[in-house]
Design brief:
Helix content: 40-55%
Structural class: alpha/beta
Strand content: 15-25%
Order of helices and strands: EHEHEHEEEHEHEHHHE
Radius of gyration: 18 Å
Bound molecules: nicotinamide-adenine-dinucleotide
CATH superfamily: NAD(P)-binding Rossmann-like Domain
Number of strands: 9
CATH architecture: 3-Layer(aba) Sandwich
Largest sheet: 7 strands, parallel
Strand order of the largest sheet: 3-2-1-4-7-8-9
Shape: globular
Length: about 250
Amino acid sequence: MELDKLKVIVTGGASGLGEHFAKQLLAAGAQVVVGDVNEEGLAALPEGIHRRRLNVADQDEIASFVPWAAKQMGGLNALINNAGIIRDGLWVGKSRKTGEIRRMSRQDWDLVIAINLTGAALMVQEVVAHMIERDEPGVIVNISSIARHGNRGQSNYVAAKAALAANTRTWMKEFAPYGIRVAAVAPGATETSMTANMNQKALDMIKASVPLGRMGQPEDIWRAVKFIFDCDYFTGETIDVHGGAAL
Ligand SMILES: NC(=O)c1ccc[n+]([C@@H]2O[C@H](COP(=O)([O-])OP(=O)(O)OC[C@H]3O[C@@H](n4cnc5c(N)ncnc54)[C@H](O)[C@@H]3O)[C@@H](O)[C@H]2O)c1
């Protein structure tokens, strides 16, 4: 689908990757709606991007957001399911200092699953219901992560991002008869506010582990998202974009 034909919702588009996607889509002539819990970030988006507060962990908010977004754009034929958070920690381990056994809290597990997995799945459900009801073909792009292959200290995030990639294939099969494509992009470590909060030692270790010798930039990830929009024969797959740093 040509970018200027897109009427697209970007979740989590008030910063980082989502903000970059929204700006690139706007520049390409697409109609764009951003939903995010970060109201300051929403307010700072360029004119021309429709925006409204959205907590993807809240099903009622999704139910009112999607028709509102479609109304702003005069239709709806695409979604970038991008909102996400991390709450890292070992699932269970022994503290080197105190010998204490530590576990990832149930709260950190539940929150990451609620936003990164359940929220994303509910967005797909609502957006696709809207498309099917109106007989409108479309494209869904899920933002997974290379952590989907398994990553120390990220059990909650891995569970969410792996399930999102697996269901990309499930949903591809369910929605293909309606002319709706579903694909995913799984970025490696990319410079955004998510990684800016990591300590320098961890960042240096990440950089050292990337064969191409640098972290990703939002533009690197956008190229893969753009390919998915562009190629009408591409569906069901998750594209890992990581500079060679496969987990
Ligand atoms: N940056 C990386 O290295 C990296 C790597 C792999 C995958 N990802 C994924 O890319 C996506 C974007 O991350 P980013 O790096 O741009 O981080 P980011 O923190 O800059 O952006 C995430 C956005 O999601 C929003 N958000 C958080 N909870 C929300 C909720 N409940 N409802 C709606 N919006 C919510 C935040 O306010 C923020 O604007 C995430 O899904 C993330 O898991 C990032």
